[in-house]
Design goal:
single chain, about 375 residues, alpha/beta, Aspartate Aminotransferase, domain 1, Aspartate Aminotransferase, domain 2, 2 domains, seven-stranded mixed beta sheet, three-stranded antiparallel beta sheet, 12 strands, about 15% strand, binds pyridoxal-5'-phosphate
């Protein structure tokens, strides 16, 4: 990273988040009248569940919607704790649940609460780009842990050993962009390795609830010291409402509280009311996971047939990460061409893996099934 203009900070010069760049380009084409199939952003087509929208509508005009407690409204903190009982059989103290402005804010709070400038934090590659960009902007050092098919695209203790000294480790299961999941044994071995080396574990569990075989395991069930981050954007379909949460050890709560007070005052109050209601919408939300499963099956069948290589069929989340078709070597040029010529928006792999990602691309299949059918139809149109 280097400053491009005098007077601007060096650490502020984070790389572009390609998925949002592609989204902006796709939106511009749509504004000009083109029909674009959006497979670039991880945004559930269904939006917030009906009960959440109804709760927000009822609150408008009747509720003062002022600032809330910095740690979140007590009802929502209790509701999230109860979710850990239903999903994982855990008895979680709501006092350890902190409501944040999207899970993105939870990462910021976790990084600030746990690490001082210069701390080295392991991030899996390919992985969600905002981790390393946020770490860099905070003068922390993201240390890439490159994973591949040999470990099912999961980090293992040997990756930690190869990374040198680490102060923290960020894992996501299900992962973005690969959809890889750590089972209990694999997560347990990572927990043991991080504890043995004094490494703080941050577990991104935002895709929990969206898996196609076994349910995901929470790090909370294996390591009470782990910081768990999750939120309402994915399973709950509430991206724009900007509500996430973190579960932290009790001793960390006052520190995160002070940081949250100063950075955010509180998460949006209307959204917290809607999120509370969304916790009751599991039937509607599970029906969406069944649609993602159909989308996944369609792409898993079609992409190899259409020439895509090394197609990774995900265990969870709603992404399919794939090699480019033969002869293609530049994922950014490939995605630009696909958008321009076929009206299909995809995210180039360079977002997730700056080096190997030149040869890969990510399909998000969180959209309606008819749109995935349309994407396949457009890909079938002529040789790529
Ligand atoms: C792995 C992962 N973590 C976190 C986020 C951020 O989500 P939020 O909307 O809760 O800030 C995303 C969004 O795509 C993601 O893919």
């Amino acid at each position: 990273m280097s400053a491009t203009l005098s007077g601007l900070s060096r650490r502020g010069q984070v790389p572009v988040f390609q998925a949002t760049r592609v989204l902006a380009a796709a939106n511009a084409l749509e504004a000009a009248g083109r029909d674009i199939v959006h497979l670039e952003v991880g945004q559930p087509a269904g939006g917030a569940p009906q009960v959440a929208v109804a709760a927000a509508q009822a609150a408008l005009g009747t509720h003062p919607l002022g600032y809330t407690e910095s740690l979140g409204v007590p009802d929502l903190r209790r509701g999230i704790a109860a979710l850990y009982g239903r999903r994982y059989g855990l008895d979680l103290d709501p006092g350890r649940v902190i409501v944040t402005t999207g899970s993105s804010a939870a990462f910021l709070l976790a990084f600030l609460a746990l690490f001082d400038a210069g701390a080295r934090v392991g991030v899996v590659e390919p992985g969600y780009p905002a981790y390393r960009n946020m770490l860099g902007a905070l003068d922390l050092v993201p240390v890439a842990l490159p994973v591949d098919g040999a470990t099912g695209f999961n980090p293992m203790p040997q990756h930690l050993a190869a990374a040198g000294k680490l102060d923290g480790l960020l894992v996501a299961s299900p992962a973005n962009p690969t959809g890889a999941m750590l089972d209990g044994a694999a997560l347990g071995s990572l927990v043991d390795a991080t504890r043995a080396r004094g490494i703080r574990l941050i577990s991104d569990e935002i895709y929990h609830g969206i898996s196609y075989g076994k349910p995901a395991v929470t790090a909370l069930s294996l390591d009470p010291e782990a910081v768990v981050v999750s939120g309402f954007s994915k399973y709950f379909g509430m991206t724009g409402w900007r509500i996430g949460w973190m579960i932290v050890p009790a001793a960390l709560v006052p520190t995160v509280d002070r940081l949250a007070q100063n950075f955010f005052i509180s998460a949006p109050s209307l959204s917290q009311i809607a999120a509370c209601a969304a916790l009751e919408a599991e039937e509607e939300l599970d029906a969406r996971v069944a649609i993602y499963a159909r989308n996944r099956a369609l792409l898993a069948e079609a992409l190899p047939r259409l020439g895509f290589r090394d197609v990774l069929v995900p265990d969870g989340a709603f992404y399919l990460y794939s090699g480019l078709p033969a002869g293609e070597t530049d994922s950014e040029a490939f995605c630009a061409r696909l958008l321009d010529e076929r009206g299909i928006a995809l995210t180039p792999g360079t977002d997730f893996d700056p080096v190997r990602g030149r040869g890969t691309v990510r399909f998000s299949f969180a959209g309606a099934h008819v749109r995935i059918v349309e994407a396949v139809r457009r890909l079938e149109g002529a040789p790529l």
